[in-house]
Amino acid sequence: MADFHQNGNIATIHNLRTRSSEDITRELNSFGASRKISLVLPSLYSELEGDALPNILNELAQVPYLHRIVIGLDQATEDQYRHAREFFSVLPQNHVVIWNSSPRMQAIQDRLAGLGLGPIEDGKGKNVWSCLGFLIACADSSVVAIHDCDIVTYEKDLLNRLVYPVANPSFPYQISKGFYARVGSNKMNGRVSRTLVSPILIALKRTIGDRDYLDYLRAFRYPLSGEMAMRTGILPDLRIPSDWGLEIGVLSEAWRNLAPKSVCQVEIADNYDHKHQDLSPEDKTKGLSRMSIDICKAMFRKLAADGTVFNEEVFRTLKATYYRSALDLLDSYYNDAKANGLYVDRHAEETAVELFAENIIAAGHMFLANPHETPFIPTWNRVHSADPDLMSDMLKGVAADLEEYK
Prior knowledge:
By secondary structure, the protein is an alpha/beta fold. It has helices at 21-32, 52-60, 78-87, 103-114, 124-138, 156-167, 191-208, 212-218, 246-257, 287-305, 312-339, 346-369, 380-386, 390-404, and strands at 11-13, 37-44, 66-74, 95-99, 143-146, 175-184, 187-188, 228-231, 240-241, 263-272, 376-377. Helices cover 49% and strands 15% of the residues. The strands form two sheets. Strands 1, 2, 3, 4, 5, 6, 7, 8 and 10 form a nine-stranded mixed sheet that branches. Strands 9-11 form a two-stranded antiparallel ribbon. One of its GO terms (molecular function) is glycosyltransferase activity.
């Protein structure tokens, strides 16, 4: 994907294959001397048993500029937490494993719930939010990167390129979003981005008219990527969605809080693959079916907040327009894959489109039934205002867990 195209909405930082990873690392070392760079890894315990994470740790162990690594551990027992501590001990950097299920962390969650500020549901959004709160409380980092723990094609250069735009003090960017090609096992992947997000943005523009927000989202080459980096000054006012609309929600927050010139996307890998979710057509509370509904609701909420009026007729029109737009794009994806010697299952792709079309209506019904629903976790600024001691108590709780469960 080595080109130099700029879309005019957000800056695109390309990999023109003219600079080595070692050269970028040296410059990031220089930046990190005065602008500490940290990394957040939201992890399920089950990912410790997979093939991806050991390689990720091996690559991260070779990154010299990281000041701190914060690992948020979900769905783990006490014995599993102890094992996770040992598992991550191969990292030479300052690192901490936060056991989100510990009695002390549960007490923190109970305090938040008592204030009406607790996350609505467990999941990646809550995990990321908690890790960012810990990092804010540490008050010693200028840049934070976030990426998943299931990337089977991970190389340390991915992190280098992700953090560079926000670590470079001469750049204006407050947030960088990673993009890449999704190819694996000789197949074109990235079904939700290709067959839902891209065509629904086209359909929304045709249905409700021009919106700057839609042009902004369409400018991202891979809006659902889980890799992003931010300057920590924006974290206290960042609202993190607790549902599966996390990536779209964070981009929407950047749109709300930042000038477009403060946002960029950066090419971080030639190829990228991670574990794949099931489509789950039989259960809208699981897999890509649920993800598609949460993504649609996130877009509808943002557009409604900016003045767009939605009703049943709009959603029916949107479904029909989406379906036609998605089928047109499938032809382009198929031809692109064919020209590159990749396989695309047209039946599976059209099955996904049919499910997503149904879920646009389902998401619309949910939105109309509860237009004031807000899955966003309160900002850390609000939490601090409501309970000034909570963040410092969280630091103490994490430290006490590290001491007790050796």
